[in-house]
Amino acid sequence: MRLIARVIFALIFVSICIDGVSQTARLKRANAYYEAGGYFEAVELYRRDLDKVPKEEMGVYLQRIAECYRLMGDARQAEIWYSKAIMRDASDPKVFFYYAEMLKMGEKYDEAIEQYQKYKELVPNDPLADIGIESSELAKKWLESPAGYEIVNMRTINSRQSDFSPAYASEDYTILLFTTSREEATGSKKHEGTGDKFTDIYISQRDKRGNWSKPRSLDESINTPDDEGTPSLTSDFNKLYFTRCRTSKRNKLGCEIMLSQRSEQGWLSPEPVPIAADSMVVAHPSISEDELTLYFVSNIPGGYGGNDLWKVTRTSPSDSWGEPINLGPDINTSMNEMFPYIHPDGTLYFSSDGHPGMGGLDIFRATPLEDGNGWEVENMRYPINSSSDDFGIIFEKEREAGYFSSRRRDIGSRGGDNIYLFYLPEIIYNLVGEVRDDKSGGLLASANVQLVGSDGLIADAKTGDDGAFRFMLNANSFSCLPTSTI
What we know:
The chain is an alpha+beta fold. The protein folds into three domains: 3-144, Alpha Horseshoe (Serine Threonine Protein Phosphatase 5, Tetratricopeptide repeat), CATH 1.25.40.10; 150-423, TolB, C-terminal domain (Neuraminidase, 6 Propeller), CATH 2.120.10; 428-485. Helices cover 21% and strands 30% of the residues. The chain contains eight helices and 26 strands. A hairpin with a 5-residue loop joins β23 (448-452) and β24 (458-462). α5 runs antiparallel to α6. The longest helix is centred in the first third of the chain and has 17 residues, at 128-144. It is globular. The chain starts with a helix and ends with a strand.
């Protein structure tokens, strides 16, 4: 599981009433773990004493097990246990909503729609049911007509644990930083909520042959036994923003954004970025190219629910940050918005499970409106998005290519979250024509045809015996009509 889980644990609390419910000593321990966000520990204890729960109380505990798996990121197990809870007449209407969410994450869209409709009957005023139904219908269409991106699993970087949230660390895109919970990560602690190692920031470099080096831990000044992740670097690659989350036994001490400066000896000891000091969570930084705006996730009061995206601004890189500004209802929903990435062209990318999507977190593109008052938000669709969590996207500056993270299951996937390469293939046009005599109108064989492109490139062809010619053209290069000479 990934740093997103740590942030979610710190921000949301799922309440299932257990007052008056029979509890063994082990179930009491399970409840204590659950309330503290220790879902990995709690689910094991719940399952071990499930046979001691009275029949009339079984639905409550089955739902708690399902919630544990959902918050651990195990949609398959969560789906199974929500189904069991419904069969045992769990009384909380949300069981139908979350069961639908898990079905959607398994690409069982028609079944998910049925459960959303049941939830809507019980809670008719909750818009989440309609959003879920709309999302499921859209997902089926997007699978049938995918966007033009090609994606490749970065198997040489990915481990059997979770690897996610890449960031470019060089101008030529040959150095990547990313977050990982691999076994080699610093320290021996494992998260009670997931059972995974606490995350570190790792680095890998691509050589001239296109091969990536074995990932290694970034400097000791950055990685500690706590959680570090979601790196974002300034355009000169000399300042590193990242998230650090601290815990102490069962106490969540929160997450904050850290800043480190690069020196000749490496990365210096980081300092907290002083924003939203009264909030428990400030995480997932993305620094703009001019270093004047910092986007992040937080639970600052005054948001729209769940996790919201915020920003702080300043007038120069040497100034202090101003007060946090919520990105508003075009971006933020009653659910979770996370993992912002600000493109140099001003486009904002982020992940959300509140906007209509294919399942779990989807990646969205947000373009500022011309009047500056709001955003136009669109889903990146399949194959960038899947029925699982998709997040942590980055782009090259001049090309529709980059990397993102996904929990999808495919032939190349390893462990939890994986990092994927994506790119938009060049569009090649097949230009076919013929050359005729301007007087007689007859077809001309062996005529020389020259095509001059908008970028100055010149392509030559010669007509065949039938007077026809053919060019294979890159859509971004050639825009002029051909002229011919004999």
